[in-house]
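Suppose a colleague, Dr. K., hands you the sequence of a protein chain of 468 amino acids and asks what its three-dimensional shape might be. Before reaching for any lab equipment, you can write down a predicted structure in token form. Begin with the sequence itself:
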Amino acid sequence: MLLGGYLRCADLGGREMSADEGASWAAASAPTIRTVLRAQSTLNPGKAGLHDVALHLWIRAYGERLATMRAFSAAIGTLAILLVFGAAREIFAASIDSADGAGPDAQRRDETAAFAALIFAVNLVTIKYSREVRMYPIVIAAVVAQTWCFFRAIRRGGFAPCAGVAIFTAIALAAHIMAALAFTGEALWLVVIVVRDRCDFAAPRTRRAFALVLALGAGTAMLAPVAPAMLSGAAHAAAIGAIDWIKRPPPWAPFALFNKATGSLAFPVMAALAMWAVVRGWARWRDAIAYALLWMWTPPIVLMLVSYAIRPAFVERYLISCFVPFFILIAIGIAELRAPSVRLAALGLTVALALGHVVAWDRKPHDTQWREAVRAAAISFTSPTSNSSTSHNETLAVAPGYAVNVARYYLQSESIPLVAHPAEAIGPDPARVILIGDQGVAPPTAAALDRAYPRLLANLRGVVVRGR
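The predicted structure, expressed as tokens, is then:
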């Protein structure tokens, strides 16, 4: 928890705000919860607004400095480490119950769950999303908490764990509709349970499985009032090209997903340990391994089918919860190494490689210099060589249009009355200065904007500032 919390909270204000973060800030900074929900339906379509409302309350309490807003995500991301430990422990307990005495003992169960939590804590793919003003830490925390309750309900039954499944299912879906992918493995697991019991409806586990079906349905039903708006918002966003940047994935995309996210040096070691878990630990950890494989592979395969049958939608952040079962498999692989010294060495190597990936990623700039671009634009309006004095009607154009809220955020610290608008909505009286991002602007559009704004005012990382 301490190590993972440090990695998530370190230098939260170091990177500049991204275009996606700008959308979350713009929605959450609205004056009331009602206006937050109204704004997020346009700025973050396809979501129910849970993250934006929570961030709105956080901003009211602590302010809207970038590091402060990111601290909200970092706090949830740190809490997720504890949730991974609890969920892994519960999944391993299911293996103990089903192995008839051949499964891991309680000490091995807790030790392996701690391995999984540590590996989760130090991996870049879980760290970087906890440093953003976005909803993904809520998604992963809710999915993991729901999995904890899911397996508690399978093992023991009762109202409380089923209620937890319903509540955390609703929270995950309210944060992002793509969280539904994480529950596809659970649906298959419930089928496995019923088949194992030969559809014996008198068997306790079969009755619990049907209770969980009702709990999952109840969690989904909680979103019924906002579901039409979520779906129509997502459809509208797709219709206007908001996700046209997503390319059709190659057939090996599910494998490349884990390689890229964990690092080219770390992935072979982690993959070898995960495979060792399957080969060596199947008899002892059968249920844990079987469910982890379903959780790990079902969502990316479903998203691959969607990408080929309907439209491309294969994006790493939509599948972030799939890394939790991968880390659980790695933990089992470490636990299945016989000598304690070898287990310690494998754990140390895994952690060291993961931390090396974090350090290497942090050393390279990954952000766009929107703050410097806004400052350069503001200076161009006030410089002696400016064509005219700055008026209250001056407009700063931004391309791509969805990045306009980043410019609006950074304009707050400038002392001149500039208003930022998407470049597509300039109107008959065009702006004198434009910010053009490297990402999200089609080459023909970028060339046309270069001709319309021939003066290069600043060439920055990820963005140029041009004037007429």
